[in-house]
Amino acid sequence: MLIRDRLATGKPSISFEFFPPKSDEARAQLERTIAELGALEPAFVSVTYGAGGSTREKTLEIVSRIRLQTGIEAMAHLTCVGATREEIGAVTDRLTAAGITNILALRGDPPKGETTFTAAAGGFSYASELVAFIRERHGASLSVGGAAYPEKHVECADPASDLKNLKHKVDAGVDFLITQLFFDNRRYWEFCGQAREAGIGVPILPGIMPITSAAQADRWVACGASLPRPLAAELDRRRTDPQAVMQLGVAHATAQCIDLLRGGAPGIHFYTLNRSTAAKDVFSELRVAGLA
User: Fold this and answer.
1) Segments making up each domain of the chain, as ranges
2) 34, 21 Cβ separation under 8 angstroms
3) Which of 63, 112, 227, 285 could form a disulfide with 76 if both were Cys (CB 3.0 to 4.6 A apart)?
4) Which contiguous run of DSSP H or E holds residue 205?
């Protein structure tokens, strides 16, 4: 099913994001996670592309296998990094040939060791160009998603410029948006209001990652995600107790998701880090609340 059609039903969309593993042990972990979270019957799952497009073949293999072996709708991430128009076109053709009809179109991060994004010769500089190319090549046969940033993209000078860029991307043919993770729902609601005022009418799925370690939270704060003061204070208090941090992360994410769904968000997209426990725990609470 096209994700845009699934979202059009009005039923909350619960989805999970995975990334391609880099070892046999990580592959086994991912297989367990797919089985455990797949049993929850998500609306779809997505598979990332890797920095610099480094996991292209693994992404193609995993999304194809998930769809064929589990019947779960799978969305492939696709980036502009290090690829020409012809190479990107070949990837989208392979995806459609495998029955994959949903793509998350991203500019992508620079390859490892590089600090700035440089378009490949004959490639694309912006996600909006990638979206337009996909639409030109495949029309409406694919559902195309895009990324959104409630606390703005780290490379963008200010929120207004970031919103302008987002509008351009949506106008190029994006059907829905998935936000970068956030821990303060106020950021999401304010962002959605600003997006609607800017004429962006597509569904905006909130991206949620339950905190599972203090170090993990520190990394995301360094990347621009803000923590509400009460959460930050409680995290510091529990910092030396991993289990207590996990419990806090699940409780906070659960409260976030309940507020988001009751407030009218079209669903929840969980960033899982290929682990199932935290996402399953939150999902269970949403089901008890009648929201999933």
Assistant:
1) 3-288
2) no
3) 63
4) strand 204-208
* Amino acid symbol at 40: L
Catalytic residues: 17
> How does pLDDT run along the chain (292 residues), one tens digit per residue?
999 999 999 999 999 999 999 899 999 999 999 999 999 999 999 999 865 555 778 898 999 999 988 999 999 999 988 889 999 999 999 999 999 999 999 998 766 666 677 777 878 989 999 999 999 999 999 999 999 999 988 888 899 999 999 999 999 999 999 999 999 999 999 999 999 999 999 999 999 999 999 999 999 998 889 999 999 999 999 999 999 999 999 999 999 999 999 999 999 999 999 999 999 999 999 999 999 8
Tell me the CATH architecture of domain 3-288: Alpha-Beta Barrel (3.20)
Residue closest to 3 by CA, chosen among 142, 106, 171 = 142
Task: Go through 197-218 and write b for each residue having 16 or more CB atoms within 10 A of its CB, e for each that does not.
Answer: eeebebbbbbbbbbbbebeebe
Residue pair 138/178 in contact (Cβ under 8 Å)? The answer is no
At 20, list the tokens.
């391609």
